[in-house]
């Protein structure tokens, strides 16, 4: 049995992560889907978009058993996903990555990059085309 933590924030993320997990996961595996909102955000539209992303990923996984979580806390999404994965003894973190230019990464940071650099849990990065 493998315990996956899948972090999603959009329909596109959910579709591509779902396609990966549909091929990789088995009915015996645990799949925990997480949407972590930025620094305790309570913007209604952002909350709804996060809920929709989680629902989209659950739908993409069809017959697999999925547990969903939306985290609205005070830390940034990367810290929340890493902490959640650690708390739940995840075997693998699955995230979507978006192509960005080098300046965009420096100026705006990258949740995926922070997760890759700050966890000892194996991370699978699923490309999400624009």
Characterization of this structure:
The protein has 130 residues and is of the alpha/beta class. It has one domain (3-127): HUPs (Rossmann fold). The protein contains 5 helices and 5 strands. Strands 3-2-1-4-5 form a 5-stranded parallel beta sheet, sandwiched between helices.
Which CATH architecture?
Answer: 3-Layer(aba) Sandwich
Q: What is the approximate shape?
A: globular
Looking at the structure, the CATH topology is Rossmann fold
| Separate helix tally | 5
Number of domains: 1
Query: How many strand segments?
Result: 5
Any idea what the CATH superfamily is called?
HUPs
In order across it, which strands form the biggest sheet? 3-2-1-4-5
Portion of residues within helices: 40-55%
Radius of gyration: 14 Å
Low-confidence stretches: none
Distance between the termini: 33 Å
Overall residue-averaged pLDDT value: 87
List the helices and strands and how they pair.
Blueprint: E1 3-7, H1 11-24, E2 30-37, H2 44-60, E3 66-72, H3 77-87, E4 92-97, H4 102-108, H5 111-118, E5 123-127
Parallel strand pairs: 1-2, 1-4, 2-3, 4-5
Helix pairs in contact: 1-2, 3-5
Task: Throw out a few tags for this protein.
Rossmann fold; 5 strands; five-stranded parallel beta sheet; 130 residues; alpha/beta
